[in-house]
Amino acid sequence: MSERNFKCAIEAILFASGDSVTVERIAAALELTKKEAEKLTDELMAEYIAAQRGITIIKLENAYQMVSVKEYAKEIRTVMDLRRNAPLSQAALEVLAVIAYNQPVTKAFVEQVRGVDCSGVIGSLTTKDLIEEKGRLELPGRPLIYGTTENFLRCFSLSSLDDLPEPPEKTGEQGEESQEKTENDGQLSIFDTPENDEVITATAEEIIEEATAQ
After folding, report:
1. If you classify domain 3-68 with CATH, what class do you get?
2. How many degrees, rounded to 5, is the angle at CA 12 between CA 62 and CA 186?
3. For the chain, what is the radius of gyration of the CA atoms?
């Protein structure tokens, strides 16, 4: 099979899946090494970006997904009659920020940082598939620990947690803060429906502000 045929096969796999597909699964399907599959998929992703088409490919940690280009979100919503979900509340942003920058963490840790009960907010973020249980600590009571999900990366347009902007650094007595702004508009999966559609309206900058406000 030629390199072009491999890329066409990867394109077909991502389109048919509608969800993210790991590099290992792509490699196994095409009988390639993980390194070869990743290289070909990265090249295909670059081709989509260069072509400036209505759909593109994004990378989510060790997986890839075909999505619509964010510039056409309005038109997609109009045709598919999708409603935009309510933005995350202040409390939800704060909890999400604490978890994102300190994961894996327990509910008790989050509540210690915020100073209030966070059971309801953590439950809501779990329902929205922005955080998930990552196991339990080997401590009395074996408390659950939480971390962010792949959907969190997708909603905030991040390829991995390494792409989270650095927290602002306080400089001097004036407490001046500097930070690199990362825009977030999110993308829509080409198979998004009203049932699974989640759009986060906060930017990564806002998450940082909440995370460092304590």
Report:
1. mainly alpha
2. 55
3. 19
Tell me if 200 sits within 8 A of 87, measured CB to CB.
yes
- CA distances for 131 relative to 1, 5, 53, 152, 172, angstroms: 40, 37, 31, 7, 35
Question: What is the rounded CA–CA span in Å between residue 23 and residue 36?
Answer: 10
Query: What is the token pair recorded at 149?
Result: 């999900």
Helix (H) or strand (E) holding 169: strand 169-171
Residues in the chain: 214
d(CA 50, CA 14): 18
Other beta carbons less than 10 A from residue 83's beta carbon: 9
Consecutive H or E run containing 92: helix 90-102
pLDDT in tens, 119-144: 889 998 998 889 999 999 888 888 99
- What CATH class is the domain 90-211? mainly alpha
- pLDDT (average), residues 74-92: 76
- Asked whether 21 and 66 are in contact (CB, 8 A), the reply is no
The verdict on pTM exceeding 0.70 is no
Listed by start position, the domains of the chain span 3-68, 90-211
CA angle at residue 14 from 10 to 17, to 5 degrees?
A: 135
Q: Which residues touch 205 (CB under 8 Å, ≥6 apart)?
A: 165, 179, 181, 182
Q: 97-118 burial string, b = 16+ CB within 10 Å, else e?
A: bbbbbeebbbbebbbebbeeeb
